[in-house]
Records
---
Amino acid sequence: MNQSLIEPAIQPVGDSGLMVRFGAAVDPDIHAQVLEADSAISAAGIEGVTELIPSFAALFVGYDPLQTDFETVSAAVRALGPMKSKERTSGQIWQVPVCYGDGLSPDLAEVAVRTGLSEEEVINAHLSGDYLLYMYGFAPGYAYLGGVPKEIQLPRKTAPVRDIPAGAVMIAGPQALVTTIKMPTGWWIIGQSPFQFLRPGEDNPFPLAVGDRVQFTRMSRDDFERAVGQGAKT
């Protein structure tokens, strides 16, 4: 792992927040520094800080403008010094089953054509990926995973498709995601999973934490139907 440290850029966000930026790429080493900044700022107990939200390459720091201001919080963050990268193995590993084909992969054939691979080779490439949960965003429980193998990376579609159901396993560029609610998307849908990334009835509705890892596994259509029928959370 690259242990070089990046001096973050700190920018104001409105009158009640700031963004600590370590770069712009979807990169595990950069993200490790985002997580370390999250941990260090949380432990520092900076007066007035109300929330911390990590993303791919930046950390949002929210604060109460009645208690503090941008200059004070920014100075406190810089005073913490360089953010040393955490070991990437610290997160929990989750097994997420996927059913490919059988009417559940509307874009699998097109992904195969565009990448020059067979459908089975696309599936095997997807299963071989090492996926890291970088952030939540866009919709409840949308866990953005980096780690899609280069041979199946495609840009998003030119136009979104409406009414994509929950559980759709999608890829776009280096990212993968499993939908949690019916939504439009311009990502490529290559399978379906019964795994629930959003569990609103539980004390912790987001079982996976930023920094956790995902390994996709293959399941049959019969096992998929059985899991869905049993209301599987896996």
Note: Residues 28-44 form the longest helix (17 residues).
---
Amino acid sequence: MPVRRDKNPLLVFNDKGIYCEQADVYLDPWRPVDKAIITHGHADHSRWGHKQYITHHTNVPIIKHRLGDIEVSGIGHGETISINNVKFSLHPAGHIIGSSQVKVEYKGEVWVFSGDYKTEDDGISVPFEPVKCDAFITECTFGLPAFKWQPQQQVMEEINTWWQQNREEGKTSVLFGYSLGKAQRLLKFLDPSIGKIFTHGAIENMTEVLRPLADFPETTRITREVKKEEIRGGMVLAPPGAQGSTWIRKMVPYETGMASGWMAFRGARRRRAVDRGFVLSDHCDWQGLLSSIKATGCERVICTHGYSEIFCRFLNEQGYDARTAETQYEGELAEMNAKAEDTDEINDQ
């Protein structure tokens, strides 16, 4: 059934978030609401202050760790809940552990809010599954043709080679990645035969939450009691907020690296003041976005955070009914700039 063109679309964007008026439910709202369906645990999508949270059951411990004592219920992928005759279901987004898309159905009309997503199977999160719909709300974090990711295996081989070389030179490798998602993706494929893997407290705390959900190598939390000599030659996983802090002095001599899609930009490594940049993103590249949209069979596309204007213009040229919408989601910029949640952990070590 074609998407309705009247003044009452199934989902609208207002000052609190993405709203379904018929069910009085918000999707990933950025201001406090009564009932919120949450796609995943990153801070720009799961915020504190809602009265009731609904999310995938593997995301429940993640957001409780981040947000504290909240009223939250978990459902499985493909499980349907009905609110005032509107059907909601969650489907794999492949972004990070616990991430989902939200499918919304009412009177034969189907919308899908993708949240953040990627098409490459990272080996720890449930792989992305396209969902047939009339309207698709997509992020555009890396919505430029210049973004084309290399296979994860190739990037991890580069990282392990870098670590081995640093170890042979008597240096510690300090690799920056967001404490939720990116750090565990890196950890999963680090080669422990090279040496010991150490973690910043913010990453270790989150990894402890996620260990029941995935098989990770052994790690050692860096505390005041851990000696500098013990760390030398090892791999240290740290959040971006630790860069430039007094905490990192314990690693001398060291080399720094950063894993992010933004490392694809020429000059990004220099601007971030790191020795090595590894292009690894938990978001789609250009082709991943296009193939995902095509697989949904949708007619209408709403483009949100990222290169939304450019991406939207291209979609319209391809025959889609596309427009942009303003949100308070940040995509991978949130990961790069995530310092507030790391501050206490940094000061404690």
Note: DSSP finds ten helices and 19 strands in the chain.
---
Amino acid sequence: MNFSEKTVIVTGSANGIGRGIALEYAKNGAKVVLADVDSIQGEQFSSELRSQNYEATFIKTDVRLEEEIVHLIKSTQDMYGGIHILINNAGKGLFKSPFDVTVEEWEDIIHTNLRSVFLCSREAAKVMRENNEGGSIINIASTRAFMSEPHSEGYAATKGGIIALTHALAASFGDYRITVNAISPGWIETGDYQKLRDIDHQQHFSKRVGTPSDIARACLYLTEPTNNFVTGTNLMVDGGMTRKMMYEE
């Protein structure tokens, strides 16, 4: 896929899945804007991409803050003249007993994981609707929007909210030729893949744990312009794990 004429913003792109997504777009010719609160890793990754002759820029952004999101979008538009693709990937976890979660912790994860998706999408769509090409927005949700383990209420609530927000935004932005889709990753290993056990891989129909590149390729598919008939949907990328029935033997 060729994204050489496209400008892509990836939030939470200094590490993990976001880093893998940004790298894949860069390899496919896009101008990549890295947005993250981690300045050290963000600048380092940006430098690494440029050293490989990819076009990349880092803009420090705390997605909990509306003014920093506005700054991210304006800076990108000023730099490249437009925005074609937004990947809302930034997020954090909160795994703590609901009896112990504070209001401050609850609001923090809501603002980081969910409110930021709305604000980033709204601001980017203002730019996208100005051109005749429209644009694409991908929201990174999670299989935890559909299944849970104890003490994951904050994370599950935000990821479930992202799914609902995705189809609502798809309806609102359709008149402007802006597609909005979600991707729900399952087990995506961002650490040392070689340390995984065989039993970890065997939990999946695919017989392997996922990698950030699996999510990145899904993003490429959903944002490729000829795939603009796909909007308002959630793509489960989990190696079939959420469809596998498991019983104790």
Note: Strands lie at 7-11, 31-36, 56-60, 85-88, 135-140, 178-185, 234-237.
